[in-house]
Write a structure and sequence with these properties.
14 strands, 10 helices, seven-stranded mixed sheet, Metallo-beta-lactamase, Chain A
Length: 277
């Protein structure tokens, strides 16, 4: 099993240094994408993965930096040779979103289906998740959804177990005992992180109220030191800091913050990084 960081930045504002939040787990040649930030299809190809090998898509929550390219990913994969069904998992209104993907893309889809491609609708299998628990069990691969705390959104973290290894992707969450429990004994924890002392870099140019934005981070996101604490609590081997805010902080600054709590291996994620699990 291999973890691929497709996008390592956090938040909806595009930047030239890091792509929007997205990861992939590759198992037996099949690609399982967790979150679909802007540009995810291009990032998959840039990582050397084939869009036609897409097997499932898991959405942690419905903020735009995590689902912006949900429709584009599957539509473009279909044009790149996808002929097998893709399973989509996430909180409601996931099925409505998939229906709208087909509606919005109808002119292009109808033309390409007329050229002999399989019906795109037949390849989209939506599975809305209401509660934490086991969501995929193929025998060789299991995916478990865990509760993430990201008010006001309905949010999940995901744990993937395959080939004797395990990786957990936190999605967006405040420091949560639920995520620590989901990650207990995992090989790798991919956890969001922000730096409280450097949030001013984010505030310039925002059209949100600065005080409210700061309050949102305090109640709905995890600072890097607390991400280290969650990794220690879970007993993981590796902590991958991801969904980095601000995106331009030096790697050593991130490591120093997380290392206050966690003495295991700390990796600061970069776009297209591949991590064996």
């Amino acid at each position: 099993m291999e973890l691929v960081i497709l996008g390592s930045s956090g938040g909806p504002q595009p930047n030239a240094r890091r792509s929007a939040p997205a990861t992939a787990v590759v198992v037996d040649g099949k690609v399982h994408v967790i979150d679909c930030g802007n540009g995810v299809a291009r990032q998959l190809v840039s990582a050397g993965l084939r869009l036609r090998d897409l097997a499932s898509v898991l959405i942690t929550h419905h903020h735009v930096d995590h689902n912006a390219d949900l429709g584009a990913l599957v539509h473009l994969a279909w044009t790149a040779g996808l002929v097998t069904p893709v399973d989509f998992y996430g909180p409601p209104p996931l099925q409505e979103m998939l229906d709208l993907v087909l509606a919005v893309g109808r002119p292009d889809i109808a033309h390409r289906e007329a050229l002999g491609r399989p019906a795109l609708a037949s390849l989209l299998r939506g599975h809305e998740i209401a509660e934490p628990g086991l969501v995929v069990d193929t025998g060789g691969l299991t995916v478990t959804a865990g509760h993430a705390e990201h008010p006001p959104m309905h949010a999940f973290a995901y744990r993937v177990d395959a080939e004797g290894s395990s990786v957990v992707i936190s999605g967006d969450t405040t420091a949560s005992d639920h995520v620590a429990a989901l990650a207990t004994g995992a090989d790798v924890l991919v956890h969001e992180a922000y730096s409280p002392d450097h949030l001013d870099r984010l505030m310039g140019g925002t059209n949100a109220a600065v005080d409210e934005l700061r309050a949102h981070f305090a109640r709905a996101h995890t600072d890097a030191e607390s991400a280290g604490r969650i990794a220690k609590q879970a007993g993981v081997q590796k902590l991958v800091l991801w969904h980095l805010i601000p995106f331009d902080l030096d790697e050593q600054d991130w490591i120093d913050q997380a290392a206050r709590q966690f003495d295991g291996e700390i990796i600061v994620s970069r776009d297209l990084m591949r991590i064996p699990c």
